[in-house]
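Following up on my earlier message about phosphoric acid mono(formamide)ester. Here are the inputs again, as you asked, copied directly from the submission form:
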Amino acid sequence: MALKDLITIHDLTSREVAKIFQTAGELKSDPRAFGNALSGCSVALIFEKPSLRTRVTFDLGATQMGASCVYLDHQGVRLGERESVKDMALNLERWVDVIVARTYSHETVIELAAHSAVPVINGLSEFSHPCQGLTDYFTLTEKVGPDLKGFSLAYVGDGNNTCHSLIFGAAKLGAHIRVGTPKGYEPAAEVVKLARREARRTGAKIEVVNDPFEAVDGVQAVYTDVWASMGFEAETERRREIFSSYRVTRKLMAAAARGAYFMHCLPAHRGDEVDAQVIDSSCAIVYDQAENRLHTQKAIMLLLVRANQEK
Ligand code: CP
Ligand code: NVA
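Thanks, got it. Here's what our run produced:
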């Protein structure tokens, strides 16, 4: 990996994405073979927001490879309040080999990476959730085979961090993504522009529409995420009204291809963005996605730490 940090999927080359998938596959099939891969290393986990999957899988993943973790929650770090983000980076780099950060502001992750000599992994910012997007496409390779060129995915709901990462991932892999959001909740124009530029090389298709049925028409997988992301809780009620026709129901799933998968990064709110009849049915692969966070993130940590040690 030439890359020092993982801030967005857009920063990776298609070859690096393939390497992450290959390594994740190896880690998944023979975890013991990597039992000492990060022996003697330390990982700082900085979380400004709550987490189940990201926190548990980074912590366990690092431990399973022989590393130790230090967890810092919002109370413990108060990024940029008690001391500057730059000073935090300059302290942490003296003790740890990799920093995982879940932040409100995307700029905070960028700043940590800019000032730290050790790799910084974005564990979710308001702008992107790269570990999630990589895991989701890795999970799809397990379902349909290694080549996702032309694979069709619809993302329905809020054009948020998860959506951005799925768009960037599709662009790298040559997949086709159709995003369906209410007007005013589309993904950032900058993300769509960068992804479309990349798509010219990879054959990906990036479409943005406002009709949920148009979004899912004939696709092989339907993805949704919460309507009000962390940090937007005050808008929950308003968004519930705006997004109500974007709920993934059995009727919406019926407009996708026969046998289409249902995907969600979790946590899910049954009755809001997805009906229980969909997420609790056999078409859902949400717990496979959750499981694969472990393997994908182990691969990301391992590849970044190794690359940084070789410098
Ligand atoms: N999908 C995901 O990132 O879950 P957590 O917020 O629980 O980490
Ligand atoms: N978009 C959601 C993802 C949670 C994993 C959020 O940012 O809260």
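One observation from looking it over: The domain at 9-129+293-309 is CATH 3.40.50.1370 (Rossmann fold). Hope that helps, and feel free to reply on this thread.
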